Structure formats: structure tokens, C-alpha cells
């Protein structure tokens, strides 16, 4: 690996030279002000160029529309058990400050949000973290299901140096993902700051190896488009995007949180044997098999070998049975039984039938009348015909996944959602 | 929303969403008559409103065929209590409740559902969560919301997915769901709801003393709860039931594509239609040997 050459490629790195050494210890005062307060994040420009507090509504609405579109293609099979490695480029390029306070800081912040969102949407999936530094890839955390341990490990290791090596990272991740069960979806999400890669061998071979192992590689670039990344994503069926600014980066990262449409040959459908342990009463004492400590209260008992474990989901250390709680599964059932998008009630109809329509949102009771008793914009559920305000519309489709109107009517006609 | 200046909101101001089970099939067989239950609840609601001037109470009726808002302390005026015998808020509430029960009963005549006579908890939970979101939207300063389910009917299995969705949404917005369950056996839905959202699940041993239970366990605001010894959970039933027979099982098979649960090996998933690779009954234990154990 040739450090000198790399320097010339990233010309700007030279001027930051002196600061770089001190980078870990102290930021310049003006940088610190940015890093601590992030005051710019709460501002946006209005039409006349004045700064205003950010209007989240429009952002939210765009997000909501995007998700609705995804939901309307419902019933496609989703790859619900995912094994994802997040590769973070911590080469010298990550210290650049075109993103504030630095690319690295911004990436870390959004990876943290991503991990939390990811586990919310994919409860049975696992994430691992890999960093690239000094031309070498390090495994920061192994594949695991606990968001906190990943976030903690990442925040403790935020320093960058040297070159980046795509091949080393792919080789490392490939080695780990080879071992996962065949029903799992293998994915790599690479957050790449550098404009080059310093590889020990032929990267094309590595890319073919990943393709053969059905590892879906996606790259989010922070600088400019690089051929090798594009090639990697095309070959393995992943996505390649370049982040334009911070909100865009956030959007790009979060796009990977919902399960991707399962491509039939990428994972073999299978029946997996699982156990559903009961939670022990508070105050009961047992020795757990995971930490090998005597613990009071909490804990779950493996239904096959009766070993005690502390947390779910996990694999029983004694008999290898995958242990989960039914709520973990239930978290993803809304993908299977999505609720239909609501229809906008047309303004002409509103004026015609003003008096017949409900005056308040069925969900939150907010008045649906504008000042002056004119009916305001509203949506209606095509099934139960109840009217909702736009805010409830977003909440219902984004987070709740229930139509309060449909749920408040007899259930006899929803045979599909039956469970338990 | 609330007319009071918002800067007065401290961390001990509560918004209590009460979900009142009005299922006639439960109350007709209950040892505690509905009227007695109601008088306990009304006293409890009054005491909540007296605890703090800014406290807010919203009552949603959970019926057999429908759900409806029946009381909101932020919109109803409490003036002109007639002859001092009963506060106006009780009169309002009882009147709306009566209308609701009559309407709900009329719907029953139109069609009885088969199976267990459960009430529509998923509906009232969803409505309560929508209302709470509106309070969150109203600005950075708002009362601390919590949900209290006063439930008696047994769980309706067909509501499972909807109730779970509501529970996860409540968990996400950090809204605890408390439950006071009046039925004969425990409610697995409410046990899970309270466990997952960090609320309290209580099954009163002596329903006649309901007011004592309500006022000692459920009246305190979320901030003060930290200082109380509240009932501890006596285990939560996390077992699943299979999609094929609705049997409760502690070990089963999961479709790797859609996560449907089955009690025995099938060739094809009945939910998503995937055909399963090979008849491996223990994919997991073989893959486990190859797999690196995490050293965390
Ligand atoms: Zn342990
Ligand atoms: Zn075991
Ligand atoms: Zn609404
Ligand atoms: Zn509906
Ligand atoms: Zn079965
Ligand atoms: Zn399936």
C-alpha cells in the first residue's frame, strides 16, 4: 500500500496536515461550536431567502409518500431475515469537512439512527460493523441483534487515518457472511468517503466472489462517483448513490432500513425451527447461560433444554435453538398485512356534501373545519369510509399500521390477519 | 388544545386516555355490576382532575361493535353543576356513554360475531394513539400522555396483529399502556402491552375495591412513579400461536420469508406462498456448528 501516492490524490489532505495530528484531541473553536450545537440543522431558507426554523411537515410528507408507494406494491415477498454488514470508511478522506463537522461525524450520526431504525423494522436480523483504516479492514462488532452495543462500539472508535481499501473490506465481510444460514439475506452497506482504493490484489475477483455468494453490496459515496463502486453494485444487485448533502445522505441510508424485495434466488425459503421462551417472574433466581452469572429476576427459559438466557432474540448457548419472543415476530407482520392508502376527499365533493361529512377527524378528534367553517383537506379510508386529518393519515400509515376506523368495526371480515 | 398557558406544564401534568370496556356480554356475566364499576371509575377520573389543575382526561368507550370518544376534559365545560349533587362532567360523560351503549347494542342486533365475545380493544387503542400524536404535535410543551385500559372482555384472537401494531407504535412514542384487567383469567394481550411499553398490568384481587386499586396504582403521574413500589409482573406469556391451528406452542417453525408461525413442517407457506427448499427439520443446528460464536 502506497501512502505517498494516496496523498497526492487527496490533495486537500496536505493543508490539514498539522491539524490532523491534533484532530483527535481538540477541534478548532469554531468547529467545536458546530459540533456541539448543530445550530444549522434547525434552519432553512424561505422563498425570500430569510432563515426560518425548519418546516418538518414537507419533509415528512415526502417521506410518507415514498413509503406509501412502497406499500402499494404490497405482498411482494420481503427478505425479512437479513444479515447486514455496515462498512464505514475511516480513511483520511473521512476527515474532510465538506459535511459539517466532518464526513466521519455525519456518517456516524446517521449510522446510529440507521441501526436503531433497522432493528425496529427487521427484528430478527443482525448487523455487524466494519471499518476501513490505514488500508486495512477491521471488524468493529460481530453480527448481532443488539443496537446499543453497535452504537457504543462505533462512537468509541471515531478516528481516521491512512488509505481506504475496498477489497480488504469485501474480503473480510465475505468471510463472515459465508457462514450465515442459507435462508438469510446477505447484505453489505458501504459508506465510502475516499476517491480511490488501495488493494493488495485483483478487486474484480473479489467482486465476483461476492456475487457468487449472493451478497448484495450497496455503496453510498460521500465524494464523487467511482467506477469500481458502481461496478460492484451493478454486479451484486445493490444500490449506488452519491450523497449531495446531509439530508440526502440521511435519506439514502434510511432507504436501506426497510427489507428489500427478496430476489428469489438470493435466499432459499426455509422453515426455521424456533423456540418461544416464557418470561420468568420478577424476582426468580437463576444462572444464565450467556453471562454465566446468577441473576435475580427477568430472563427467559429455553423451551428445549430449559437453560436460562438474559435477552431475546438469541441462540440458546446449550442446544442451539433460535429463541425469540412472539412480539419480535409480530413487529414485522405489518409488512404482511399492510393497510390500504387512504383516498383524498375531493374539494368539490366537500363543498357539495359539507353537512353530511364528519366535522372532526375520526382518529384524533381534530376539527376538520377551517376557520370560517369551510371544510378543510381530509382523507377517507376506502374500507370503513371514516375521515381523517392529514397528520393522522401520515401517522397511521407510517407508524401505527392500523386504521382506527376499520379496527372500531366488527372484525368478522378480516380473515387474513388472524393469528393467535 | 388546553387553554392554560403552556409554560405551566411541568413533568407532573398528565394526559390520561381511559379505554372503557362496555362489552355487554362481559358485564352481564361479571361479578361486579357495571354501575358499581362506573361509579368507581368516575370517582377516579374526578380525583385525577383534582390532582392537578392542568391534568387532562379523555375517555374512549371500547364496545362490542364500535368504539367512540365519550369524554374529553379539555373541551367540556364544567360549569353549572346542577343542584350540587353531581358534577356536570359526570352528567356529560354518562349521557354520552348511554348514547354509545344504545348505538352499540343496535349494531349487535344487525349481526353477532362468531366466537369469543371480545370488545374492540384494537380500535380504541388506535384512536387513543392518534389523539396522543395530536397532543405531541401541539408543541414542545404538553401533558405527559399515558393510556389506561379498563378491560374485562377476553382477548379477541382476530385482533392480534392490530393490537401488536398499536403496542409497538405506543412503545415507539414512549407512551406507557397501563392495564387493569377485570376478567377471570389473565389477558395475554394486555400483559404484553404493559410489559412492552413499560406500563403496569394489574388484575385486582377484589374487584369491589376497584377505586383503591385505581387510585394507588394508576393515579400518579409518570414522573412520580419512579418513587413508588408498583405491582411487579408475574411473568409474561410470550408463547406464540401457530397460524394453522391457532394452538399455543413453545417451539415451532417460522417461514424465513414472511415469518409466519407453523406448529409442524409444511411444504409450502400458506401466508406468502413460498415453497420451502428442502425438508430440513433442523437447519439451525447444522448452521450453528459452522457459525462463529460472537465474543461480545
Ligand atoms: Zn446472561
Ligand atoms: Zn436450549
Ligand atoms: Zn386526526
Ligand atoms: Zn378504515
Ligand atoms: Zn398449527
Ligand atoms: Zn411465508
From TrEMBL, chain A:
Residues 1-28 are annotated as: Disordered. Pfam families: C1_4, Ssl1. Its main location: nucleus. GO terms for cellular component: transcription factor TFIIH core complex; transcription factor TFIIH holo complex. It comes from the Eukaryota. Residues 1-11 have a biased composition (Basic and acidic residues). Coiled coil: none annotated. It is found in: Nucleus. InterPro entries: C1-like_sf, Ssl1-like, TFIIH_C1-like_dom, TFIIH_SSL1/p44, VWF_A, vWFA_dom_sf, Znf_C2H2_type, Znf_RING/FYVE/PHD. A zinc finger (C4-type) spans 302-319. One of its GO terms (molecular function) is zinc ion binding. GO terms for biological process: DNA-templated transcription; nucleotide-excision repair; regulation of transcription by RNA polymerase II. Residues 12-22 have a biased composition (Acidic residues). Keywords: DNA damage, DNA repair, Metal-binding, Nucleus, Transcription, Transcription regulation, Zinc, Zinc-finger. Belongs to the GTF2H2 family. This is General transcription factor IIH subunit.
From TrEMBL, chain B:
PANTHER family: GENERAL TRANSCRIPTION FACTOR IIH SUBUNIT 3, TRANSCRIPTION INITIATION FACTOR IIH TFIIH , POLYPEPTIDE 3-RELATED. Component of the 7-subunit TFIIH core complex composed of XPB, XPD, TFB1/GTF2H1, GTF2H2/P44, TFB4/GTF2H3, TFB2/GTF2H4 and TFB5/GTF2H5, which is active in NER. The core complex associates with the 3-subunit CDK-activating kinase (CAK) module composed of CYCH1/cyclin H1, CDKD and MAT1/At4g30820 to form the 10-subunit holoenzyme (holo-TFIIH) active in transcription. Its main location: nucleus. GO terms for molecular function: zinc ion binding. One of its GO terms (biological process) is regulation of DNA-templated transcription. The keyword ATP-binding does not apply. It holds the Pfam family Tfb4. Belongs to the TFB4 family. This is General transcription and DNA repair factor IIH subunit TFB4. Keywords: DNA damage, DNA repair, Metal-binding, Nucleus, Transcription, Transcription regulation, Zinc, Zinc-finger. Component of the general transcription and DNA repair factor IIH (TFIIH) core complex, which is involved in general and transcription-coupled nucleotide excision repair (NER) of damaged DNA and, when complexed to CAK, in RNA transcription by RNA polymerase II. In NER, TFIIH acts by opening DNA around the lesion to allow the excision of the damaged oligonucleotide and its replacement by a new DNA fragment. In transcription, TFIIH has an essential role in transcription initiation. It is found in: Nucleus. GO terms for cellular component: transcription factor TFIIH core complex; transcription factor TFIIH holo complex.
Amino acid at each position: 500500500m502506497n501512502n505517498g501516492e494516496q496523498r497526492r490524490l487527496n490533495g486537500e489532505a496536505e493543508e490539514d496536515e498539522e491539524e490532523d495530528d491534533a484532530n483527535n484531541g481538540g477541534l478548532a473553536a469554531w468547529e467545536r461550536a458546530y459540533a456541539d450545537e448543530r445550530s444549522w440543522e434547525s434552519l432553512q431558507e424561505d422563498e425570500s431567502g430569510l432563515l426560518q426554523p425548519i418546516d418538518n411537515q414537507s419533509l415528512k410528507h415526502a417521506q410518507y409518500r415514498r413509503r406509501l408507494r412502497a406499500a402499494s406494491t404490497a405482498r411482494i415477498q420481503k427478505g425479512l431475515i437479513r444479515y447486514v454488514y455496515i462498512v464505514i470508511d475511516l480513511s483520511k478522506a473521512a476527515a474532510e469537512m465538506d459535511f459539517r463537522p466532518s464526513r466521519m461525524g455525519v456518517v456516524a450520526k446517521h449510522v446510529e439512527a440507521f441501526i436503531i431504525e433497522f432493528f425496529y423494522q427487521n427484528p430478527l436480523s443482525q448487523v455487524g460493523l466494519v471499518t476501513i483504516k490505514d488500508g486495512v479492514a477491521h471488524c468493529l462488532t460481530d453480527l448481532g441483534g443488539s443496537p446499543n452495543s453497535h452504537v457504543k462500539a462505533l462512537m468509541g472508535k471515531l478516528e481516521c487515518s491512512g488509505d481506504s481499501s475496498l477489497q480488504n473490506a469485501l474480503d473480510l465481510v465475505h468471510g463472515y457472511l459465508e457462514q450465515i444460514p442459507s435462508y438469510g439475506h446477505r447484505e453489505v452497506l458501504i459508506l465510502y468517503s475516499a476517491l480511490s482504493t488501495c488493494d493488495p490484489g485483483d478487486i474484480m475477483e473479489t467482486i465476483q466472489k461476492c456475487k457468487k455468494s449472493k451478497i448484495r453490496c450497496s455503496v453510498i459515496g460521500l465524494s464523487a462517483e467511482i467506477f469500481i463502486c458502481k461496478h460492484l453494485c451493478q454486479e451484486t444487485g445493490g444500490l449506488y448513490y452519491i450523497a449531495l448533502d446531509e439530508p440526502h445522505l440521511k435519506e439514502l441510508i434510511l432507504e436501506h432500513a426497510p427489507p428489500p424485495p427478496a430476489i428469489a434466488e438470493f435466499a432459499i425459503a426455509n422453515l426455521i425451527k424456533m423456540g418461544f421462551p416464557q418470561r420468568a417472574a420478577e424476582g426468580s433466581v437463576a444462572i444464565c447461560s450467556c453471562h454465566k452469572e446468577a441473576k435475580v429476576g427477568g430472563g427467559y427459559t429455553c423451551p428445549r433444554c430449559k437453560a436460562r438466557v438474559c435477552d431475546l432474540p438469541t441462540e440458546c448457548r446449550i442446544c442451539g435453538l433460535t429463541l425469540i419472543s412472539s412480539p419480535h415476530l409480530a413487529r414485522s407482520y405489518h409488512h404482511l398485512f399492510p393497510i390500504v392508502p387512504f383516498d383524498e376527499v375531493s374539494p368539490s365533493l366537500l363543498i357539495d356534501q359539507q353537512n353530511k361529512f364528519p366535522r372532526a377527524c375520526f382518529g384524533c378528534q381534530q376539527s376538520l373545519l377551517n376557520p370560517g367553517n369551510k371544510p378543510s383537506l381530509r382523507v377517507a379510508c376506502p374500507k370503513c369510509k371514516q375521515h381523517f386529518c392529514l397528520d393522522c393519515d401520515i401517522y397511521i400509515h407510517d407508524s401505527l399500521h392500523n386504521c382506527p376506523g376499520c379496527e372500531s368495526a366488527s372484525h368478522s371480515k378480516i380473515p387474513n390477519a388472524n393469528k393467535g | 388544545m388546553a387553554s392554560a398557558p403552556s409554560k405551566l406544564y411541568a413533568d407532573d401534568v398528565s394526559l390520561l386516555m381511559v379505554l372503557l370496556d362496555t362489552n355487554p356480554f362481559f358485564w352481564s356475566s361479571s361479578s361486579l355490576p357495571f354501575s358499581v364499576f362506573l361509579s368507581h371509575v368516575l370517582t377516579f377520573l374526578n380525583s385525577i382532575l383534582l390532582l392537578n389543575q392542568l391534568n387532562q382526561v379523555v375517555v374512549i368507550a371500547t364496545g362490542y361493535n364500535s368504539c367512540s370518544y365519550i369524554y374529553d376534559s379539555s373541551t367540556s365545560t364544567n360549569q353549572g353543576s346542577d343542584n350540587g349533587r353531581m358534577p356536570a362532567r359526570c352528567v356529560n360523560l354518562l349521557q354520552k356513554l348511554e348514547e354509545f351503549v344504545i348505538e352499540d347494542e343496535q349494531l349487535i342486533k344487525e349481526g353477532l360475531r362468531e366466537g369469543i365475545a371480545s370488545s374492540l380493544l384494537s380500535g380504541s387503542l388506535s384512536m387513543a394513539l392518534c389523539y396522543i400524536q395530536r397532543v405531541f404535535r401541539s408543541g414542545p410543551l404538553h401533558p405527559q400522555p399515558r393510556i389506561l385500559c379498563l378491560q374485562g372482555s377476553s382477548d379477541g384472537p382476530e385482533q392480534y396483529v392490530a393490537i401488536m401494531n398499536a403496542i409497538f407504535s405506543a412503545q415507539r412514542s414512549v407512551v406507557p399502556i397501563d392495564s387493569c384487567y377485570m376478567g377471570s383469567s389473565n389477558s395475554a394481550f394486555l400483559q404484553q402491552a404493559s410489559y412492552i411499553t413499560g406500563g403496569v398490568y394489574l388484575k385486582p384481587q377484589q374487584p369491589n375495591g376497584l377505586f383503591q386499586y385505581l387510585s394507588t396504582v394508576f393515579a400518579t403521574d409518570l414522573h412520580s412513579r419512579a418513587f413508588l413500589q408498583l405491582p411487579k409482573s408475574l411473568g409474561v406469556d410470550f408463547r406464540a400461536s401457530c397460524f394453522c391451528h391457532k394452538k399455543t406452542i413453545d417451539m415451532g417453525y417460522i417461514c424465513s420469508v414472511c415469518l409466519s408461525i407453523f406448529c409442524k413442517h409444511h411444504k409450502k407457506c400458506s401466508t406468502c406462498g413460498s415453497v420451502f427448499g428442502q425438508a430440513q427439520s433442523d437447519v439451525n443446528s447444522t448452521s450453528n456448528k459452522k457459525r462463529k460464536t460472537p465474543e461480545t
